[in-house]
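Course assignment 3, question 2. Fill in each field.
Student: A.L.
Task: Predict the tertiary structure for the chain below.
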Amino acid sequence: MRILFASAEFAPLVRVGGLAEATSGLVHELRSDGVDVEVVIPDYFDTTLIDETVVSLDVPDWAGPAVARSGESELAGPVTLISVPGIQRANPYVDGDGNGWSDNPDRFFAFSAAVAALADLRSPDVVHCNDWHTALTFGFLPDDVPTVFTIHTLGYQGWTSGGWLDRIPHHREAFERHGGTNPVAGAIALADRVVAVSPNYADEIRREEGGSGLHEEMIALGDRLVGIRNGIDTGVWNPSTDDFIEAVYAPDAMVGKTACRQKLLKAVGWVDTGVPIVGVVTRLVEQKGIDILLDTVRYAELMPFRLIMLGSGEKWLADYARHLATELPETVAFHDGYDVAFGHEIFAGADLLAMPSRFEPCGLAQMQAMEYGTIPVATAVGGLVDTVIDADESPDIGNGFVTHSVDTTGFVDALHRAVRAWSDPQRRWAIQQRGMNADWSWKNPARRQIELYREVVASPFQGGLQRSASDDAGG
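Answer field:
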């Protein structure tokens, strides 16, 4: 089976958020299972490839010139990089002030047109697109191409002006919303299957409060919408083989975690006071509930806990974290930015992981934390529901602590319960073991994805929006 797999991010070449980790983890496992996957990403940085081949792509004038370079990346393996006007940027999405590039629609819509042109050259069995950056591809593909569209987050839909509709050759009415152009709306209308990145998120986006304005369209998908939980790359996230951490360890030999904890304390200049360390590795955005977490710091001495945070994003959240680190230097440590090695050190050395997300389609950090014996404290949203089980509500199977109230009060309660459990060595060990012994890998999710590809090839979409080649004019 040959899959053309298009994404705006792919770790470690292009890493902004969880999209990069999710796409690379899935592709790695698919390839391990014998699936021929051509990864297609924008050529943001003019990356060097080994044994490079170059082809020009037949795209509309507004999207060109478009060139695809295919070859071997030393970091990511086989990959195809597409260059279109304006695509090369130091940051794929935002400028130095954190504002989205004003020409993002131009850049990613041109990329989508180029992906469709590449698919015409390659004739894959399935075209698999991810999130809004690739969603317009569906308006350029012939109707007989089997397709899958994965929603990593419905909060970003690529909305732009209605003027773009005239540039879409097929089924432009699918992309029209309230006089504007909505790439994600079109993709979900046209894809043979739509994948949400966790079963609970698939349920959430069918509801008005979780559907970001598209819940009726999600309901209409019926069984074309499926939830497949993301995994994590256990070749990268594995405490028994991790080169980034102070000492390796495993569920049946946890001594190394103590050494990692001491290394983490040393890294932030703290002495060990016996207080649990709460780790955070995240994007600093409102979605992640970082303000909720920082508001809990006022209770840190009472619980007690200490907070080590790594991340970058919205300025006001970074300023809030920086203020607390300055005012309470023995309680809060903040590293503004992303450091791969330090991220691994936090997962290995922290005692608890905080995930106070307001919404979380899947979440990877909670699984990465549990792989390292770090107990997650999370809100009951999205994929966190599918992965974190409250140890007070379910003492025999609990692997973390959950709040059903997405606010400071609820998170303080869950964090307090987690601190109390951590203080009991026997109970702490039992909760850690459940998390570490679970299979968080991509093995089962990738197998389900392969089944989905086979379903799409054998039984393409036949209902709902009528997809016919006679609709080339978009009418």
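Instructor remarks: The chain has a mean pLDDT of 94. The radius of gyration is 23 Å.
Grade: pending
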